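Example record

Each entry pairs one chain with its bound ligand, NAP.
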Amino acid sequence: MSSTWHILGAGSLGSLWACRLARAGKPVRLILRDAQRLHAYEATGGLTLVEQGQPRTFPIPAEITTAPGPMSRLLVACKAYDAEKAVASIAHRLTADAEIILLQNGLGSQDEVAARVPLARCIFASSTEGAFREHDWQVNFAGHGFNWLGDPANPLPPNWLDDLSDAGIPHQWTPDILTRLWRKLALNCAINPLTVLHDCRNGGLTEHHCEVATLCAELTELLQVCGQPQAAENLATEVERVIQATAANYSSMYQDVRNRRRTEIHYLLGHACRTATRHGHTLAHLERLYRRLVEHLNNHGLPSD
Ligand code: NAP
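Structure tokens for the complex follow.
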């Protein structure tokens, strides 16, 4: 019998993972932030996954962070800015051999969590799957994608990858997870902030070709300086390809701002700028972009941290 999958954060991605694992008969428990959220969930009767317009509800058991009981396998599916605090609230429940899977986009939050629970094994994930919530406790599986998993401190795969295969969660274990995360971060830095500042879909950036190219040159420099040369390979070409392939889409950061939600800027562009500073490197355009974005968020009454 496989260990229970404790899922911290029953939002879009957490619910997508929880429903697929439950559908495959794996033991799953949701960890919700407080009694109010637990009552709201229990009144609904379960999590609903909508796939190709077809809803199916899974009565997955749930509890609050302060419930008793050990956890040896924890999937953290909060936003990057909530991850450390959320993990701190359950840290006393982790077993000595606990493994934590971190689904957060960007970089920086993984190290914050690892520092908070130094004895746990932290496995980083980089996901290109897409999910969104129309209502609480209901998730729409919007975009098929892939999940890269890895542990920068230990190349040996964990023993639960078969659970993911059984659940139809596409994945691969990689010793180069940091390269994957840096590459995704660089793509994000080259595209998402500009879509917010120019108020456009991804395809609108074809009209700002020079600005995109200048950012790609600085991001390439940064990746080389911080020991991620592989993540830098042909970055500009891939950024152009993504802009073309997703021309009709609004970036996730654009959607966050439009819906007046907090962005993960601190763990994306913010992380890139902090890393450059730490290496004593000046990246004038990237830093100016960060200042413009912070100002834009502040002008819209949104947090910029
Ligand atoms: P989301 O829908 O906002 O879900 C986050 C969940 O975390 C919410 O349900 C929230 O609870 C919960 N949470 C926050 N603090 C908590 C705490 N202290 N205790 C318990 N639960 C807590 O976010 P998401 O879209 O799933 O994104 C999660 C991460 O995955 C982000 O880093 C995102 O960039 C990344 N990602 C998402 C997608 C996607 O398609 N959604 C794709 C790739 C990567 P409440 O509901 O109570 O507020």
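The chain has a mean pLDDT of 97.
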